[in-house]
Amino acid sequence: MTYRRPRSDTVLLIFTAALVVYLVLTPLGMLIWNSFKATPPGVPGPLTLDNFINAYLDPTLYPLVANSFLYATGSTVFAFFIAFTMAWLVERTNAPLRDLAYVIAIVSTIIPGMIASIAWLMLLHPRIGLVNRALINIFGFSEPPFNIYTMTGMIFIGGLRHVPIMFLLLAGALRSMDPSLEESAATCGSGISATLRRITLPLMLPASAAAMIYSFINAVEAFEVPALIGIPARIYVFSTKIYLVMHQSPPDYGLSAALGMTVLMIAVVGTVFYQRVLTRGERYVTVTGKGYRPRAIDLGKGRYLGTVFLFTFLFLDVILPMLVLVWASLLPYYQVPSMRAFRSLSLASYVNALKYPGVLQSAQNSLLLSVVGGCITMFLAAIISWIVVRSKVPGRRLLDFLAFTPIAVPGIVMGLALMFVYLNLPIPIYGTIWILLIAFVTKYMPWATRNTNAGLLQIHKELEEASEVSGASWWQTFRRVLVPLLVATFASGFLYIFSHIMREISTAILLYSPKSNLLSIIIWELWQAGTIAEVGAVSVMLVLLLGVVTFIGRKYVGRLSVS
Amino acid sequence: MSGGKLSPKFLTASVLVSITYLVRPGAPPVVAASLVSSLQVAAVAPSQESERQREARLVEGAKKEGKLIFWTGGTAKDWQYVFSKFRQKYMFLTTDYWRATDADLYQKITTEARAGQYNVDVSGADVEYLQQLKNAGLMKKYNWPNTAGWSPQYKDREGYWIAHHVLCLVPAYNTNLVSAAEAPKSWDDLLDPKWNKAISMDKDGGDWVLMLWSAWGKEKTVNYLKQLARNNLVFGEGAGARTQMLAAGAVKIDVRLNLHQILEYQKKNAPLDWVRTDPILSRPGPLFIAQHAPHPNAAALFGDWFSSLEGQQAYYEASGKLVPDPKVKSHLSEALKGLKISVLPAELTVRGNEAGAIWRDIFWK
Q1: Which of A232, A250, A522 lies closest to B235 in CB terms?
Q2: Which residue of A157, A294, A306, A319 could cross-link A89, Cys pair, CB 3.0 to 4.6 Å?
């Protein structure tokens, strides 16, 4: 199909594609260039393969590879099981209070990974974990039943951290999927389980594959859980090794880039798989020009089990960690519950946190960047996805791949790359909030494009063709046909990016300036200073604030959505 | 300036030639402005003017600059208090503050410098990075006029840096989990196999290796660390966070915590006590004026004030850390009375990379 686009549309498409390529190539180029150099960025030096030789001849690399794969696979599979069940319950069944899942997912993403890991440490630590102590007291175990400092512990927490993103992807896809086939199966006497297995799951293959591939690569790059749980347990993965070599004296830029390249290669393989799913995606199109309205499957009495499942996840992923954070925030120093601890409870840390230098300015900056960054990233991603999924433009797969590659660039490397580029280019944004905006748009482009790709894939071309035949321009079609159909996708993507920018640290740490400080940096600073009570206080306030924003956002988006 | 060896005539001539070169058409404006300003500060040897004249000159220059940019690894809360005191005296200056870990601080300073940009006036640095910063020409040689009464261990012989605090690192234990009788009393007690997996430590230990090295020599240090490694240390990050975990009972012992934080926790009745090792390890927390400080007069003014009794007292009140000025009465000095203290000598910091490699070889593999 060929569109006769007006010239301004072509310009918009070319400009957007060029902008994304520019944004992405900055950190990527830095990563590749540094992996072949023995000298730090900006210092001339001969090209060399030594970094790769050092990385691959190091016997500690192989356990690293095994650990990374085990962690990424385990947490992805665990997360998929929970996320798919949640998405199905919400979008296809009549489980009471099912809409709560969206709030759970967003609130869960709001809790920074570092904070969640700390909370789980306090819950499942073999010595001071509250869950362990409670079980020992109740059942008289001689040994603590759980030990967080294991690969299983890492997979459990890492998996929980990946549920929201997977849920948002899968729920978006399920919502956009015409349920007529499932309803036909039910009419023909197929049970819920058989329909799910034979119809829903196969139809959801592209979205599921996309979600799992994304989650897997994200897990390979994930830092917070491997750092807080893995390093004390001496279970190293790529991200922690990269962090360690970047923070040693002197930092080994070359080795970290060579390891980063390895992560990139994993991302390449993932993307190739993803592309193969994508090219076969036409078989899975279910949103057509025909009207549809999903009908909820009646689970009978089992619907309460669905609600129990959602509440169990809510309890594990949000309530339990938040309770520990609230507990920690009320204490002068962290203690397990006791009469002495109860006597020392106070709200002093909340007062201290609000009086902390720059905390309000930082909150403003974080909010501004989260809103603007979320909007820009989703807008760019939608256009990129249109080029990738709809157009026949040569190089579109390369564009899709490029938009995906920032996932492989460690946060600190991206920070360094942007710092270096904007220190040398005559674009005066270094030290301003705008360099952070560029960093965040680049960093979350992979997530945003996976989201919009999956959403667009399920909308049949005939809707756009109808618009085109009626005389609409490409821009009009995009704005008035696609955007309304993609509102749910946009909303979930925006909220995800919004909450991730609110908590991002690793890229921002080198780019923020006194005037562009962020709330996440303040939390990190408080953690570094060992003031867990203040960390808890700021986190609790942040989660409450974002919970309210999300709730209002969902209500508003709910009205906008095409039902 | 370290002052004195160059004649005023030579200095003046050099300044004129340099200025002519630096302000030529095409010179980078930031560099030119900062260097010109820097040379104006340097052109007057301290010995030629009284303390009052010197301050008046710096004040005059700083008023034109209007700002001081300060980077460090300390907490904003501590430095906000210090700057509030500083600004009580020099209200015309605004202060911009940026914080990061020492590794990130080093990366920011060096990456900016490679691009020819210089945005910091005064900065902290970890001892491990001092030599690299000095070699890169990023530290200014300065005559810290108020440090005459300080121990030579707390300032660089050539004037490149001074200590803004002296960090005393001690092993500490949770008194609920370890009785006073079984608590370790010496460095060797920490090697007892009964502490297997019961001792925590920071994942980064290069500076700690250097401190042991300065107390015992390299060979004994390496042997000791190899034996300690058999107890399978539990790694964490940040002394503050590890102190919390120790107080909560997550581990029995931590091998290197900050004494001032332990004392602070004891005030809150936390079940913590510390080991009076022989020696107590300590290291200076360096502070330096940037060679290409964009506000050189403000930087010098702050350097002078901070190293004065008033500045030292303010930093002690804010942080509770031991400060190098012996005139500041500190509760840490009381706690350390009668104990042998080993201070990491600045000369050994050139071995920072080697010490880091020793740490990684023994504990990360």
Answers
A1: A232
A2: A306
